[in-house]
Amino acid sequence: MSQMPSLATAGGMPALTQQRKAAIIVRVLMQEGTELDLSDLPEHLQELLTHEMGAIRQIDHATLDEVVQEFLAELESVGMTFPGGLAGALDALDGTISPSTAARIRKQVGVPVHKEPWTAIQGLESEQLMAVMENESDEVAAVILSKVPVPKAADILGKMESERARRIAFAIQRTSGIDPETVQTIGSSIATQLASRPALAFSDGPVQRVGAILNSTAALTRDGVLEGLEEKDSVFAEEVRKAIFTFGNIPMRIDPRDIPKITRAVDQAVLVTALGGAQGGGDEKAGEFILENMSQRMAQQLRDEVRDQGKVKSKDAEEAMGNIVAAIREMEAAGELILLSDEEEEEAQA
Fold first, then answer.
1. Which has more confidence, 106 or 37?
2. Of 55, 118, 149, 203, which alpha carbon lies 20 to 30 A from 70's?
3. Smallest Cα–Cα separation from 259: which of 248, 267, 250?
4. Cα 128 to the chain's mean position, in Å?
5. pLDDT, tens digit, for every residue of 171-215?
6. CA distance 2 to 230
């Protein structure tokens, strides 16, 4: 029987390199049931650790005890650890320094944008992903689509020009044999492209910002601003009108099947006040639309409460309508409902 390799030396303490000691410690931790995530180590260190563990056959108790004691002594001498290198420092400071500063540092020293680029890419809005995919081949777009959540991928395909959507869907079948390194390279490349774009002061465009502001203003002020915009820039004014969603837009932008969901999300007293304030005014159609698309029993109960409460002050009515609009916006952001587009609105009314 051949002699098994030994790590012991004549001096008693085995002639161990630091790498081999690290391999012993990892093995001890694993044997004790510790869950280790070594994927953050550079790949060459992961390979070295694997080779070192493969080279060890057995060690005696005295050697094991000395290696463990040395490791524990080093741990006790450490007062604080800092992330390694600029990449680690930037990750640690994420959210505490401005995005523009972080982007400038990464660009200056060539630090990768993200250790996990796909995590950042998956967090992009559908419109942002579509903008990225516009300049990519069908195959790369297919990889992107395969890496994002299914609801978002479906949303992107639905918004694309039909021919491009078909080509990308067909290209997905060619991604089955792609290796993980290529997928990671694609993700890193896209993340780098996104990081190289100038940092914007506002996350939303001017249309969205003006629309959001006017959504929360009184109707008289909103109408006056829109008239002024129409005189200055009719195209911009039209885009803002489309971005605005008010109580009066409910019949045009809300699927009738979503009305019960909306009324459950709003306090009944608020609903009664809004419906009462809508009577006899420009929002009466919206009030009737809500009542017509719920159960007859519930609708009658609300009509009775509206009658019993009497005349509603304009201020109270606007506040209640604003609360309903806010609830709808929250549900839209959470993906619980989708506001109808102009085309869907026409189909619903047809």
1. 37
2. 55
3. 250
4. 11
5. 988 888 888 888 888 888 887 777 666 655 666 678 888 888 887
6. 93
**Token code pair at residue 21:** 């000691």
Residue 328: per-residue pLDDT: 92
The burial class, CB within 10 Å (0-12 / 13-18 / 19+), for 98 is exposed
Write the CA distances from 113 to 106, 127, 182, integer angstroms.
Answer: 7, 21, 17
The stretch 46-52 carries a mean pLDDT of 87
Considering only residues 273 and 335, tell me which one the structure prediction assigns the higher pLDDT.
273
pLDDT of residue 97: 67
Helix (H) or strand (E) holding 68: helix 61-77
| CA pair distance 143, 105, nearest whole angstrom | 29
Q: Count of CB atoms within 10 A of residue 255's CB?
A: 15
Which candidate, 156, 152, 333, 347, places its Cα nearest to that of 256?
347
Contact in structure between 80 and 147 (CB atoms under 8 Å): no
| Alpha-carbon gap, residue 159 to 155, rounded angstroms | 6
Determine the pLDDT at residue 2: 37
Contact 273, 312 (CB under 8 A): yes
Cα-based angle 314, 248, 290 (whole degrees, multiple of 5): 100
